[in-house]
Design goal:
Largest sheet: 8 strands, parallel
Number of helices: 9
Helix content: 25-40%
CATH class: Alpha Beta
Distance between the termini: 19 Å
Order of helices and strands: EHEHEHEHEHEHEHEHH
CATH topology: TIM Barrel
Strand content: 15-25%
CATH architecture: Alpha-Beta Barrel
Structural class: alpha/beta
């Protein structure tokens, strides 16, 4: 069985056929998925989707590209993280590609999420784009390793990968790794230790080959898994088994009642 370690099933893109998406995921062998919030107003929606569906888990956080005014209060964040089936903090992090100007507020928001992660012993889901040095610096200075976490939708180089692995973090690969021009990422993927690797869709974005150009959905994580198994010279069933085990080792609160 497979786990989609990062998707956005709460997005409006899925309103018309959310039940069908869950059914297709099951048919594709995707037994579990984690829905990562990106805005505070969707926390309750993410929590409800997790509560109502077996094998669906939730994370609460605010994406770095949301404006400064959307930074959540620590009290609100801790309350959301205490909800049933909320197993992680995020997604959060730093993004210097889509945001401009003085971005101290992004770093302060990220630090707040790290503090919440440590306070609740729930791992953090990190988004980073064109901010590798500052992301790594904050993970170190704020002792993010205390609760652990994952760099989701990883696109960085091996140097960054090695640094976050040294902090005890996991690395999650999305459909980007299947793209023809992602040779640098494929080189990193070959080196990643099997006990730190996760797979994801980041749906509705980044549909993998052979579904590229379509709306992504959790069922398509099977294509990420198949590509990585071939790339790394591993049996698909082995990759499915160890990425599922890794998911539960990291998201240790993702335990069926």
């Amino acid at each position: 069985m497979l786990v989609d370690s990062h998707c956005h099933l709460d997005f409006d893109d899925f309103d018309a056929d959310r039940v069908g998406i869950l059914d297709r995921a099951q048919q594709a062998g995707v037994s579990e998925m984690l829905i990562a919030a990106v805005v505070q107003k969707h926390w309750s929606r993410v929590q409800s989707l997790a509560a109502e569906n077996v094998g669906v888990w939730a994370a609460a956080g605010v994406h770095p590209n949301e404006p400064e005014a959307e930074t959540p209060a620590m009290e609100d964040l801790l309350t959301a993280l205490a909800a049933d089936k909320v197993v992680a903090v995020g997604e959060t992090g730093l993004d210097y590609f889509r945001s401009e100007g003085d971005l101290r507020w992004q770093r302060e928001r990220f630090a707040r999420h790290i503090a919440a992660s440590k306070a609740t012993a729930k791992p953090i889901i990190v988004h980073t784009r064109e901010a590798a040095a500052d992301t790594l610096a904050l993970l170190r200075s704020e002792d993010a390793a205390a609760a652990g976490g994952v760099i989701h939708c990883f696109t960085e180089d091996w140097e960054f990968a090695r640094a976050v692995l040294d902090l005890g973090f996991y690395i999650s690969l999305s459909g980007i790794v299947t793209f023809k021009n992602s040779t640098h990422l494929q080189a990193v993927a070959r080196k990643l230790p099997m006990d730190r690797l996760l797979i994801e869709t980041d749906s509705p974005y980044l549909a993998p080959v052979p579904m590229r150009g379509k709306r992504n959905e959790p069922a398509y994580v099977q294509h990420v898994a198949a590509f990585l198994a071939e790339l790394r010279g591993e049996a698909l069933e082995d990759l499915a088994a160890f990425t599922t085990d890794n998911f539960h080792r990291l998201f240790r609160h993702a335990v069926a009642a």
